[in-house]
C-alpha cells in the first residue's frame, strides 16, 4: 500500500512539473506575440492571462445600491443625464446657425468613390459591437462589394444636402467603470457610444479628411484626441523631459497637472460642406 502511495506522489509531482513547464511555455508564447499588439489588445490579453474579472451586472447593481437606492432604471437615467451635462457649457447648435448656410457645390475632392466606401467596409472588424439598428458588422464586411455602391450614393447625397438619416443619429450608450467597484457616477464611469456601423464607416471617411486637413495645425506634443497615441506616449515624453531637466546639478522639476474637459473639440480650416456635415452629425442626436 505504501509503495502505491509513493508511486502516486511521484506521478503527481511529475504531472505538476509538466503542467508548470507547459504553462510557462504558453505564457512566454503569448507575451512574445503581444509585443506586436497595440496597447488595447495588449491590455486585453494581459487581463486574460492574469485572470482579472470583467465588470458585470453585479458591478452596476452595487453602484445602484450606493447612489439610487438599488433602482437600476433610475441609475441609467442619472448616468445619462450626467453624460449629457458634460457639454452643457457649449453653445447649442440649431439649423439657423451659419455653418448650415452652404450654397456652393460639393468640391470634387470630397466626392466619395465606391472604392473608398468598399475599402472602409472591408476594414470593419467582424466582431465589432452593433448599434441600435442591430445590423451585424460581419454583414457589412462580407457583403462590402454589394453594399458599397448604394452606401456611396447615400454618403455623397448626405454631404451635398447636409442631412443625415435619423436612424444614424441614434446611439446605445454603454457605461464602463474606470475602477472596481465604482462608487461615483461622476468620477468612476465613462460612456461608450455605439452607433450604427454604417454611420461609423461614413464617419471614418470624414475623419480621414479632417485629419489630413488639420494635421499641420496640431502641436507635435499633443496626445489627447490623436489617433495612434495613448497614455504611454504621454508618460514617456514626460519622463524624458524630467530626466533632461534634472541633468544639471542642483536642478529640480515642478509639475502642474490640469484636467481639461472637451479640450480638443475645435476645427481648423475645414471645408464648408464638411463643417455642415459635422454639425448635422451632432445635431438632434438620441441616446
Q: Outline the low-pLDDT stretches.
A: none
What is the radius of gyration? 26 Å
- Overall number of structural domains: 2
> End-to-end span in angstroms?
70 Å
State the helicity in percent bands. Answer: 40-55%
Protein name: Reverse transcriptase domain-containing protein
InterPro entries: DNA/RNA_pol_sf (IPR043502)
Structural overview:
The chain contains 11 helices and 2 strands, in the order αααααααβαβααα. The chain has about 290 residues and is mainly α. The protein has 2 domains: about 1-50; about 55-240, no CATH class. Strands 1-2 form a two-stranded antiparallel sheet. α5 (about 115-120) packs across α7.
Topology readout:
Layout: H1 2-34, H2 39-50, H3 57-67, H4 72-85, H5 114-122, H6 137-142, H7 144-161, E1 172-177, H8 185-188, E2 189-194, H9 197-214, H10 231-245, H11 272-282
Antiparallel strand pairs: 1-2
List the keywords.
287 residues; mainly alpha; 11 helices; 4% strand; extended
Q: Summed up, what is this model?
A:
With about 290 residues, this protein is mainly alpha-helical. It is about 55% helix and about 5% strand.
